[in-house]
C-alpha cells in the first residue's frame, strides 16, 4: 500500500432505537408536569490532560473508566441508572468530566470498561452489532470527535472491548489511546462509538467534552475566560419512566424486519450538563458558551426569548476568522457552536434559551412547551465592569486552494424503506458496511466532495480526521425522479448527469459556518459542495503520525447510522 494514501473504507452501522412508542408496561413521566428551572446548572468535573514540571507543561497519562451508577436528572425524578465516565465510580458524571488539553502536549488515555454484562437499554440483534446473546459484557470504544490522531486511537467501531478487555473487537489493538493535541485549538467531545451500540451507549450517558487550549494565541483575543465565564453546555434530550429510568422504545418501526430498531430517538425532556431544564445565575457581562448538541436526532434552533443575541467565535473544533452576530442558531446532532452572550444588553432580569426546531428536522413535528425550553438565565441587576471583549478578528487559517484539488468525489445518501414505507436502513454511495474502501485520499491533499442528499431528512455529516469548508448548497431541480432512479441503479452521479439537476436555488451558507468544520447539515434534496483538507489546517503541515494504517477512519451521518471510510 502507498504509505501516503489514507485507507478509506465505507462503513455502515445501524445504531438506532427510538422513544416514539411504548408498551402498556411502560409508565412514562408526563414531562409537562415537571417544574422547569429548579436545578442549578452543574459544572462538570475538569481533568487536565497535562501536568506541570517546574512550570513547564508535560505529557500526562489518564485512566478514565465507564461505570454503571445512579444519576438524578431532575429534582422531582427518582435517580436513573446510567453509564458514566469518571476516574472513579463515585466521581463519574453524566456528561463525563471535561478533559482540558494543551496544544502540542500529548495526552494518553486508558479508557476502562467497568460495565456489567447486561445493558440497561434495549438493543436490536438484527442489526450489525458488537453485542450478541453470547457476549459476556457490554462492548464500548471511545471516539474523540474532532480529534486529529492515528487510526488506532480513533475509536473504530470494531475496536470495541468489554470489561477487563475480556472480549475485543476485530480491529482492537491497544488499551491506551494517544492524543497528540497538535491541531488547532478548539472544542471536541468524546463518546462511545461501538458497532451497533453507539446510540444506546450514548443514551445511557457515555459522552463528555474535550477542549484543546493554546494560550499563546487565544489569550490575546480577550474572550471571556475562567471557569465562571467560559462554560461548556452539553445539550441532549431524554424521556423517562415514572421510576426515573431512561426510556427507550423496545418496538421497532418495522417489527418484522428489526424488532426494536427505529430511525431516530427523540426525548421529551431537554437536558443540559446532566440536568433537565436547569438554571444559571449570571452577571451583567459577557459569557462564553461552548454548546455541544449530543442528541441522537434532535436539531436545536436556539434563540433567547428576551431578544439577546449570539456572537459566534468558533464552529465545531476551529475558530472562525471574524465574529458573527445572529438572533438564532441551528445546531445539528454532534455539532458544536461556540458563542459569546453579553447579558449586560438584556432589558430584563430573566433570559430563557429556547428552541423551535421541528423534529425530525426540517419537516417534522413542532416543538412543545417541554422540548421548546432549554435553560433559564437569572441575570443579576447590578451593572459591572467587564474587561473581556470580542475582537474584530479571531484566528485566520490558510485559505482553500481549489487549484490544487487532488480529487473530486461524489457521495450520495440513500434511505431505503419497507413495504409499509418505513425506513429500514441508510447507505452512503449504496455500499454496505462490508464493502471495500471507496475513498482513498492522500495525506496532505485537498479534495472536493459533492454530497448528494437523496433522503427526506437533514443529515449531519461528520468526517473523522479531515476538516472541511462548505462551498455551496444547491437544490436539485424538479422533477428529479429520473436522476434518483438512475442513482439507485448505478450510483454514478456523473453518468446520471448530476450537473443537469444540480442547478436549482442555492442556499446561503451561514456566515458563522463558513470556517473549517467537521460536521455539517446536509439539506434534503440538495447537493452540498465541500473542500476537505487532509492535513493540519493551521500549518498545512502533514500529520505527526501515520494516518495510513489500519483500521482507517470513518465518515458518517450522526443520526441514524455510522459509515466507515479511509
Automatic annotation (TrEMBL):
Cofactors, names only: Cu cation
Keyword annotations: Copper, Endoplasmic reticulum, Glycoprotein, Membrane, Metal-binding, Oxidoreductase, Signal
Transmembrane segment boundaries: none
Keyword Endoplasmic reticulum on entry: yes
A GO CC term assigned to this protein in UniProt: endoplasmic reticulum membrane
Gene Ontology MF terms: copper ion binding; oxidoreductase activity
Compartment(s): Endoplasmic reticulum membrane
SUPFAM superfamilies for this protein: Cupredoxins
CDD domains: CuRO_1_BOD_CotA_like (cd13844), CuRO_2_CotA_like (cd13868)
Entry's Gene Ontology BP terms: cellular response to phosphate starvation; meristem maintenance
Gene3D superfamilies the UniProt entry points to: Cupredoxins - blue copper proteins
Family per record: Belongs to the multicopper oxidase family.
Name by which UniProt lists this protein: Multicopper oxidase LPR2 isoform B
Amino acid at each position: 500500500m502507498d504509505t501516503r494514501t489514507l485507507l478509506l473504507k465505507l462503513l455502515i452501522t445501524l445504531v438506532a432505537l427510538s422513544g416514539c412508542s411504548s408498551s402498556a408496561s411502560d409508565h412514562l413521566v408526563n414531562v409537562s408536569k415537571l417544574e422547569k428551572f429548579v436545578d442549578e446548572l452543574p459544572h462538570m468535573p475538569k481533568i487536565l490532560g497535562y501536568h506541570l514540571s517546574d512550570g513547564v507543561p508535560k505529557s500526562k497519562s489518564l485512566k478514565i473508566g465507564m461505570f454503571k451508577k445512579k444519576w438524578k436528572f431532575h429534582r422531582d425524578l427518582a435517580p436513573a441508572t446510567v453509564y458514566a465516565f469518571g476516574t472513579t465510580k463515585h466521581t463519574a458524571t453524566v456528561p463525563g468530566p471535561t478533559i482540558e488539553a494543551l496544544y502540542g502536549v500529548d495526552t494518553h488515555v486508558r479508557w476502562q470498561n467497568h460495565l456489567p454484562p447486561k445493558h440497561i437499554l434495549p438493543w436490536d440483534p438484527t442489526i450489525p452489532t458488537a453485542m450478541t446473546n453470547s457476549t459476556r459484557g457490554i462492548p464500548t470504544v471511545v471516539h474523540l470527535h474532532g480529534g486529529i490522531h492515528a487510526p488506532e486511537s480513533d475509536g473504530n467501531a470494531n475496536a470495541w472491548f468489554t470489561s477487563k478487555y475480556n472480549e475485543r473487537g476485530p480491529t482492537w489493538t491497544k488499551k491506551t489511546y494517544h492524543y497528540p493535541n497538535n491541531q488547532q485549538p478548539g472544542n471536541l467531545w468524546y463518546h462511545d462509538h461501538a458497532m451497533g451500540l453507539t446510540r444506546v451507549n450514548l443514551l445511557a450517558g457515555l459522552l463528555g467534552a474535550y477542549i484543546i487550549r493554546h494560550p499563546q494565541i487565544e489569550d490575546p483575543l480577550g474572550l471571556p475566560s475562567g471557569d465562571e465565564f467560559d462554560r461548556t453546555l452539553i445539550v441532549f434530550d431524554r424521556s423517562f419512566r415514572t421510576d426515573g429510568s431512561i426510556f427507550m422504545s423496545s418496538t421497532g418501526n418495522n417489527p418484522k424486519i428489526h424488532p426494536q430498531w427505529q430511525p431516530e430517538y427523540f426525548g421529551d425532556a431537554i437536558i443540559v450538563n446532566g440536568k433537565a431544564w436547569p438554571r444559571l445565575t449570571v452577571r451583567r457581562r459577557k459569557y462564553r458558551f461552548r454548546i455541544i448538541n449530543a442528541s441522537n436526532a434532535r436539531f436545536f434552533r436556539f434563540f433567547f426569548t428576551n431578544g439577546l443575541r449570539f456572537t459566534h467565535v468558533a464552529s465545531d473544533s476551529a475558530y472562525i476568522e471574524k465574529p458573527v452576530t445572529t438572533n438564532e442558531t441551528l445546531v445539528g446532532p454532534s455539532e458544536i457552536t461556540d458563542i459569546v452572550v453579553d447579558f449586560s444588553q438584556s432589558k430584563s432580569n430573566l433570559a430563557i434559551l429556547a428552541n423551535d426546531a421541528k423534529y425530525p428536522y426540517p419537516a417534522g413535528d413542532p416543538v412543545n412547551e417541554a422540548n421548546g425550553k432549554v435553560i433559564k438565565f437569572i441575570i443579576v441587576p447590578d451593572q459591572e465592569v467587564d474587561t473581556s471583549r470580542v475582537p474584530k478578528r479571531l484566528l485566520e487559517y490558510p485559505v482553500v486552494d481549489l487549484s490544487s484539488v487532488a480529487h473530486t468525489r461524489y457521495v450520495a445518501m440513500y434511505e431505503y424503506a419497507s413495504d409499509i414505507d418505513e425506513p429500514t436502513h441508510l447507505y452512503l454511495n449504496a455500499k454496505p458496511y462490508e464493502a471495500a474502501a471507496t475513498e482513498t485520499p492522500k495525506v496532505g491533499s485537498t479534495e472536493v466532495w459533492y454530497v448528494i442528499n437523496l433522503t427526506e431528512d437533514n443529515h449531519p455529516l461528520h468526517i473523522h480526521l479531515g476538516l472541511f469548508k462548505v462551498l455551496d448548497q444547491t437544490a436539485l431541480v424538479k422533477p428529479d425522479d429520473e436522476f434518483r432512479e438512475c442513482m439507485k441503479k448505478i450510483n454514478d452521479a456523473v453518468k446520471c448527469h448530476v450537473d443537469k439537476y444540480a442547478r436549482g436555488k442555492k442556499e446561503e451558507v451561514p456566515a458563522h459556518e463558513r470556517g473549517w468544520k467537521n460536521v455539517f447539515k446536509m439539506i434534503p434534496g440538495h447537493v452540498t459542495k465541500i473542500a476537505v483538507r487532509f492535513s493540519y489546517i493551521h500549518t498545512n503541515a502533514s500529520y505527526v503520525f501515520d494516518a495510513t494504517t489500519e483500521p482507517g477512519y470513518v465518515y458518517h451521518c450522526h443520526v441514524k447510522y455510522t459509515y466507515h471510510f479511509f
